[in-house]
Amino acid sequence: MKLYKGTSGDTGVTAYQTGSSYILVKFKDGQVYKYTYKQPGRTHVNAMKVLAATGKGLTTYINQYVRENYELKLS
Predict the structure, then answer these.
(1) 62 burial type by CB count under 10 A (0-12 exposed, 13-18 middle, 19+ buried)
(2) Can you tell me the distance from the alpha carbon of 72 to that of 66, in angstroms, rounded to the nearest whole number?
């Protein structure tokens, strides 16, 4: 996983990994969630990939738009 470089300094996301149709997101509590084109959908996943790469706004986006709408909780 790549470290998430949250620019605010107060981010809940610590790392992420992207694939062609998904993003894995690791939070500071150690939990890892898989968001896919199936759930919460292509639009959200693609937006999350961009935010992860830029290091800005991923935690806020998840809190506002997808919350518990993940496909799989990995840990």
Answers:
(1) buried
(2) 13
Residues 34-62 pLDDT 10s: 999 999 999 999 999 999 999 999 999 99
User: Residue 8: its pLDDT value, please?
Assistant: 65
Cβ-based burial of 39 (10 A; exposed 0-12, middle 13-18, buried ≥19): middle
Confidence of residue 7 (pLDDT cuts 50, 70, 90): low
